[in-house]
User: Fold this.
Amino acid sequence: MTVDRSTFRTVMGHLPTGVVAIAGISAPAATPAGLVVGTFQSLSLEPPMVAFSVDRASSSWPKVRTADRLGASVLAAGQEPVCRALSRSGPDKFAGLAWQLSEYRTPRIAGAHAWIDCTVSRELDGGDHVIVLAEVLHMEAGEGDPLVFHRGRLGAYRAAVGAQPGR
Assistant:
């Protein structure tokens, strides 16, 4: 049986995902480059590792990938404008965004729900995506609720679970 693309997207859209900005200081320009992923997850405790997927058609990933270290900012509820800025195409996605360099020299989005500094260990084939495995160097939790993507919409986690009976 073949699953058509539309059905696949609709069914998988029922799975809420976190929204994570992946960023690095691209070489040789020494400027921040970034993109948004909705496939970020923990992978291993020993060593501490995370995994995320990037569309092979992304024009941002080759720029981000030139960085020695990457920063993952788990976006917080209310950071939809940050998500839109990093999802658009263009040369300076960070224009107008509040960010600073972490102690590991990775871009850290201000006000994010959490931050993870890492290095890419390996890239694997994932069909029309690249699966990135990264070793965690440092991580820190922020405040508030995460931004989630569910059924084609961005929103706050509490709003999503608060609408369920019995909560």
Notes: The chain has one domain: 18-149. The first strand starts at residue 17 and ends at 18. The mean pLDDT is 89.
